[in-house]
Each structure stands twice: as C-alpha cells, then as structure tokens.
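ASSEMBLY PREDICTION REQUEST
Request ID: AP-0331
Submitted by: J.K., bench scientist
Number of chains: four
Total residues: 466
Priority: normal
Notes: Please return the full assembly, not individual chains.
Input sequences:
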Amino acid sequence: MEKEKKYCYEYPRPALTTDCVIFGFDGLELKVLLIERGIEPYKGRWAFPGGFVQMNETTEEGAKRELEEEAGLKNVFIEQLYTFSDVHRDPRGRVVSVAYYALVNLKEHPATAGDDAKKAQWFSIKKIPSLAFDHEKIFRMAMLRIKGKIRYQPIGFELLPEKFTLSELQYLYEAILEIKLDKRNFRKKIKKMNLLIELDEKQQNVQHKAASFYQFDKQKYEELLHKGFNFEI
Amino acid sequence: MEKEKKYCYEYPRPALTTDCVIFGFDGLELKVLLIERGIEPYKGRWAFPGGFVQMNETTEEGAKRELEEEAGLKNVFIEQLYTFSDVHRDPRGRVVSVAYYALVNLKEHPATAGDDAKKAQWFSIKKIPSLAFDHEKIFRMAMLRIKGKIRYQPIGFELLPEKFTLSELQYLYEAILEIKLDKRNFRKKIKKMNLLIELDEKQQNVQHKAASFYQFDKQKYEELLHKGFNFEI
DNA sequence: ATTTTCTGGTGTATTTTTTACACTTTGCTC
DNA sequence: GAGCAAAGTGTAAAAAATACACCAGAAAAT
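STATUS: Completed
Returned structure:
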C-alpha cells in the first residue's frame, strides 16, 4: 500500500535536506566523518550525515540536529557551505540540499556514533572512499572553503583541544593547506597576531623536550573581528 | 473557492525560491536593481527580483530565469550567495530562499524592466529604500561578499563595459570597497597583474586629456585561475 | 591667442612584510 | 653519559606596500 500523502500544495516542491561535512583533526591528519548508508539508494556507500529539514527549524538548526542524531556531536562550529540543487542529484526525486561544514576537536569526540545505530567512521581526507549522491562534489567544495577560510580567520582553533602546542597548530595548518610551512616563520606570524596565551603548563610523558601549551584568546579575537582584521598565514 | 492543491507529499515541504541581488556600476556609483512589489505581502515595497524554483531547473537556472523575466537580463555573471531559511522570513508560510548575486554592466543594461510589467529601478547602494521580507539582510550579505571577492578575483570587469579606462576601473574599486585608493599605486598593481590589454583607442568628446581604453584579457585570466593566483588590490 | 580648468599619466625613496635558512636546548631512553 | 627527538630561537636579503607631486594635453573661458 502506498503511504499516505497528506501534505498538499498548489505547485510541486522539491524536498529540502541538509548535509554536513564534519572535519576533525587528530594531531596528524585532517579527517571527515562519514556514515555508511543502511538503505537504498546507495546502500552500503559512505555519505556525509544529513537529513530532511523540518518545518519549524532553519537549515542550520536542521544540520545541527542531524549532527547530534547521527554523529553525537553538540555545540560545534558550523557554517553554511553551499546549496546543491542539480535536478538529478538524488535518484528518489527532486531533492535540494543545503550543505554545511563543521569543525570539531577529534580528541574530545572520538570514534563516535550517534543515537542512530548507523555506522560512522573518520576517514583521512587523503583516503576518502567512493561517496553516495553528489557528496564528492560537496567534499571538494568543503575542502576549497576550509583552505580559503583558514588563511584569514582563525577557525583552526575549533579543530584543536583547548590546550595545544605550537607544533600541533602548525601541523593542522599543514594538513589543511596540504603544504609544508617553515617553523620559524610560522611561529613569528602566529605570535604577532597576539591571539595566543602561553600557559605555564608543559607537555608530559613525551620522550623529548616538552613543548609549552598555548590557549586561544577568544576575547581578543572577538575584538579584532569587529574592527576587521586579517589572519594570513 | 480554494485553489486546487494537487501536489501531495508524505511530509511537509518548505517552498523554495531564489532571490538575486543585481549589482550595476554606472561609472560613478555602485547600484542594485530593485522591483516594486505589486501584490501582498509587502505590496508597494521594494525587493530583489526572485521567484519560485521549478522542478526541472537548478536554483541557479531559476535565478537566471527570473533575472531575464523580471529584469530583462541575459548572460550575466551570477554566483550563489547564501541560503536564507528563517522560519518566519515570509508571512505566507515556510519559504526557503537561495540567494544569488549578479554583476552587470549598467551602461549596456539601462533603466530596464523585463517582460513582466513590474516597476524596476536602480538604486545607489548608499540610498537603499526599506525592503520587503529579509531582503535587507540579503543585501548586507551581498555587500560583504562582493567586497571580499573583488580583492582576490577580477570580478570587477563584469561590471564595466568591454572597453574602459583605468580611472573607471579605479572608481569601481573605490565604489565597491567604499574607500579611496592611490592612483599611482592602483595602476602599478593593476599593470603588474598583466590582465589588461591597452587598446589604440582613446576617449572622445571629453573636455580634458583623453584616456586610453583598456580591455580585460580573459584568456590570461583563465590560465591564471587554473594555476591559482591572487588578485589583491 | 592666452589662460584656466580638468583629468590623464608617470617614478622614486622609505617602510613593512615575507622569505630563506641552521644551530642550541631539553628531557627522555638505552 | 651517549644518543635521540622535537622544542625553541634570530638575522640578512628580497619583495611588496606605501606615501607622495608634477607635467601633459584637450577643451572652455576670457
């Protein structure tokens, strides 16, 4: 029996979904969180978490809800990426998707799966499997965005634990930009921005000289955001 | 009698529209094209051209279609801006709008109105009237985008006639960025980019020394885009 | 015919920013 | 205490950004 179709409109409407590219950093590699699809279409293929937008929520709220339901993530940095609307992007019919990207600190959000019993897994951006729908296109766009964005806004801190070393920060920039950076020049620039607070604390249980921990100075950043500033690496 | 509602779905769906901020430059000021609304809601208020997305077109195609229908504009530069989805942004019900911005050469597209008998008018960005829906929010976002974009991509050329003088180009940058630029330094940078072709032609019927016309070298630009480059002013 | 007005067009010196580059320090392991 | 591994640090050279003022040429006004 066909399911009841009780929401009727004068003109046809596309379905509206959100999808979210969740970036995480484990100290070495940049990763994204993928969900294995349990149903057709693309059953068994990997995809970014996402779902239908409800009538009483914005697309951003919808994306955040899905983030929590499918990946168990709450209170993360999220920003709109792009709206994908190819007529045939979903074999089930006309579906328009507002894509977001999120940045999470992977150490505080490990292997992970949400309430749903779906299989979730972090993949290095260097080894992404074949994806469902147009999610490869979404991924490419998210990579471009994060590469561009990190050069003029300190979003990198969203990917790190509260306390981090300068080397960790540099590895993160190198992982996102996919280039090598000069240690001395990197530190010079970072320090000139005046957005870091050096803590008294140092690394422990490392088999080499212990590095100082730093913290991001959110208050100073807010001030600078208002005045307009540049964060070029 | 209520209109027939023949498109039925299992779950409710928001309506999907596009809106387009059309920027034009008249040689002095940056302007946007607004349409006076002929019907409720917001009857008599100004708004950006837009309309419902059809089932056989992407949102970009829909935005282009509206551009032609409502403003008589064809083959213009257009790019996605942002998707606006506040639950109460439209008093008629749940409407999600994918906003675009377009750049047109105002001299080749004067006062203008499309097939629709709607009233269309160019407004200086310094004197925008009160707008319908959340269009003031859309406008602010479009201004931020164009200001950011023009610093690293030569989109300015879309706003100028095919042949233009260096002063016209500088006025355009000043109008978009809302700052004054130094003439010699501006010319130095523009010339170093190597994207302009100086023509043999000069201004005519001007009551001062005639300026040389220049042309944008699209071929070189395409090459550079692939290699990745910077267009900082 | 001369002067005025208006915009076009040009170069240099100074400061700031970016880049390239190598050794010492520290703490642990063996 | 020798070896290892990453932390941490400065300077010189090159490149880019900035500040700045006058002459050229065409038309209009006198």
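REVIEWER COMMENTS: Chain B is about 25% helix and 25% strand.
SIGN-OFF: pending second reviewer
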